[in-house]
Design a protein that fits this description.
The protein has 158 residues and is an alpha/beta fold. 32% of the residues lie in helices and 20% in strands. The longest helix has 15 residues.
Length: 158
């Protein structure tokens, strides 16, 4: 079903009311990973939801706070020096150093620090190393493989 490592699987396992928030720009190749995943995840559990924030995650912050989730999984392309398609849990205070582009109007770290403080939710930032962030639609093969693994994982959660 999915070929995620045990560490990644444990980090992104839902807990109570869980939100998967996907971030990225589908017109910048692998930066579109988040929306690609978010548009294809259909959680079985009513306690799990997906919110596609695209390039303006600050616009969904109040909705997330109002939902009072127990856990938030933030998915974005991130340059951390891995190989294309590699997944890594990134500390929130480091995410702004690793985001691929400044496509977000407001720093992710600031936005989600406020969200975490206001909700008390566990927050996991999952970064996927991009192969390309050039102006192009579609994911590189390595990133698409990781995206499909994530989709498979999330779509089998009860």
């Amino acid at each position: 079903m999915s070929n995620l490592s045990a560490e990644i699987g444990a980090a992104i396992a839902p807990r109570g009311t869980t939100l998967l928030i996907t971030v990225g720009n589908p017109l910048r190749a692998d930066d579109g990973l988040g929306p690609f995943v978010g548009e294809r995840v259909t959680f079985r559990s009513p306690e799990c939801r997906v919110i596609n924030a695209y390039t303006t995650p600050e616009n969904i912050a109040q909705s997330v706070i109002d939902l009072k989730p127990d856990k938030i999984i933030l998915l974005d392309a991130a340059r951390f020096g891995g190989r294309p398609g590699e997944l890594k849990v990134i500390a929130l205070d480091l995410i702004d150093r690793h985001t691929t582009l400044s496509t977000h109007s407001f720093p992710l770290g600031v936005t989600f620090s406020v969200v975490r403080e206001d909700t008390g939710a566990e927050l996991v930032v999952l970064g996927v190393e991009p192969g390309s962030v050039e102006f192009a639609e579609g994911l590189t093969p390595e990133v698409k493989k990781s995206a499909l693994s994530l989709i498979g994982y999330f779509n089998t959660i009860d």
